[in-house]
Amino acid sequence: MANPENINQSLARTPLYQMGVELKAKFTSFGGWEMPIQYSSIIEEHHTVRNTAGMFDISHMGKFILQGQNLISQLEYLVPSDLSRLQPGQAQYTVLLNHQGGIVDDIIIYYQGTDSFDTQKVVIIVNAATTDKDRAWILAHLDPNTVEFQDLSRDKILIAVQGPTATNHLQSLVTEDLSAIKAFGHLETTIFGKYAFLARTGYTGEDGFEVMVDSSVGIDLWENLYNVGVIPCGLGCRDTLRLEAAMALYGQDIDDTITPLEAGLGWLVHLDTKGDFIGKKVLIQQKAQGVPRKLIGLQTEGRNIPRHGYPVLSSGQVVGEVTSGTLSLTLGYPIALAYVPSQLATVKQQLEVEIRGKAYPAVVVKRPFYRSKNRVTK
Length: 378
What we know:
This protein has 378 residues and is of the alpha+beta class. The chain has 8 helices and 19 strands. Helix 2 crosses helix 7 (235-244).
C-alpha cells in the first residue's frame, strides 16, 4: 500500500486511484491530478504496449458532451479544421485557437450524428490541465439557447487499451465487430450490460481503443482486463510512447503562443474548404509569408539525451530549445522535438544540443520517429 504521508490531498484522484494503490504504483502530480507514473517499470510497460497490450487510466482527461441544433457549424468557428465532412461515427483531431492563432488546446471531436429533431451530438475529449479553460472558451463562443453542454470529466472513467492485441481483449466484451471500426471511428455499445463509448483513438502510436464508462463499470472493466493479462501502464511510458510517435504534449510542445502551422499541424488547417474561424487571418498570413519557426524532430547519438528546455545550437549559437526528449526505448537512440528557425528545419540539417554545458551533435530527422505496422487507417 502507498504511504498515506506521501499522498497529496490537494490533488484530484480518479475512481481507479485505489486500484493503483493496491498494485503499488508510483504516483506523480499531473494537471492537478495524482496519477500513476508507473506500475512495474517504464521500460517494461513501454515494450508491453508495443508488443501486446497495456491499459492506462486516463480518467483525468476532460470529457464534454454537447447537443444542439447547428452544433457543428458553431464548433467550426473554434477550430481550423473542416468539421462539416464528418459522418456519424467519425472524429477529428484538431485544435482550439485563440485570436492570435495560438493553440488553446488540442482536442478530439467525436461526431455522433443528428436525431429526428435535427439535434446534433458530439463528444469532446480535452487535456486534463486545460479542462476548465477549454470549458470556458467553448461556452463563451456557443449559443446557450441552442446548445446543451455537459461536463462529465469527474463522472466518467476513461481507460485507454493500447497495443497490437488490445482489440482482441475488448472484442470479447462487446457484441459489435470492432475490426470494422477504422481509426478515429467510434461507437456506443454496452459492457457488462451498461452504456459504454468506444473510440479507436489513443496517444501511443499503436492500435487500440479508449473506453468511456460509468465509474462502477470502469472498475469492473479494469479488473477484468487485468485478470486476462492486460498490463497496467502509467504516464511515464505514455510519454515515451507518444514521443516516438511524435505526438505533441500540450503545455510543452504546443501552447497558446504557437500556431498549428509552426507546430507541424498544418494538416489540421483547412483554409480552402471552410468559412471564418478564430485565428484564420493569422494563419492566412503565415501561409503566405512562411512561419518564423518550426517544430522539428532531432536525433542524437549514444546516451546524449536531449531534455525539455535544453538549448539547440547552430554554428555555436543558440537557435532554439528542446520541448520534449527521451531515449527511444523502441529504436535504441535519443530523440527529441524542438523549435528552430524555419531555415534550419530541413531533414538532415546538422545542429547541436547543449547538455550539461557541452554541445553534442544532433541531426534533423523525419517525424514520426516510429510508425507502428499495427495501426489501422481511417
